[in-house]
Amino acid sequence: MKDIRIEEDFSYKYDQDATGVFLVSSNIEIIRDFRKGGFRHALFDFDGTVSLIREGWQSVMKGLMLEVLSSTPEGKDEEDLEGFIDDFIGATTGKQTIYQMIGLTEETKKRGGSPLEPSEYKAEYTKRLMEKIASRREDLRCGRAKPADYLVPGAEEFIKTLHERGVALYLASGTDQKYVEEESALTGVSPYFEGNIFGARDDYKSFSKAMVIHGILEKNRLQGSSLVGFGDGFVEIDNTKTAGGTAVGVATNEKDPVCVDEGKRKRLLAVGADVIIPNFTCGRLLADLLTGGDK
Fold it and tell me: Where would I find the beta strands (DSSP E) of the chain?
């Protein structure tokens, strides 16, 4: 164990291995160095990064895809079809649902099947998922559940801290706009984003997380290095890095959110996350690192 000085006011113990530096006291894994302090714009993914309302969506999507692909001439006898589907879902996490359904259509054709339209698959997936999470949404709506019950640990406190320090916050999700607005309100985080909440649209080509990032940088006349992005999926991390920003991978195990999901962690490392956290219980220190201390 050695001492590392991160900033003039910060001194922590750390272990170093092949993947980076792990700040033991705070559950912050620094993969590569990034500028400390000064971030005033932050982009958040929603599902799995902030909200746990949709925990289990992967199993719903997997069930639909397995049902469709296993009924095709070539898919019915395909070895490790489930493994293929798991990898596909992992690689497309963060994209608009319609793109995953376009992928399902293409994979059905490849296996000799006659697919439905992507919009029809999306409608079926959405119906199944909403049935699964209906009680969660209703419990929040009527007060049987607290917002914290369906938030990644520490998320609300961290978001509030950034907001109080003058950081402009943006929420961008592959989930449909109306549901992102509803569920960010149900979990109590929507006021911190001050209307900067962006979700999927029927005209899916008119929205992407990359477009949101471009709009943030253009509107505020910023360089990409001024932006920090938070997400648990490939897309938002890749988009943040492509724009020149700093990417924080949120590798939360959604079934046990105090723990790291090793599958997520590996994917986030592979796409270039600069920092990995298991959740936001390290939020105060992370906020200090990103904003330069209490303001």
Answer: 2-7, 10-17, 20-23, 28-30, 41-44, 168-176, 197-200, 227-231, 246-250, 275-277
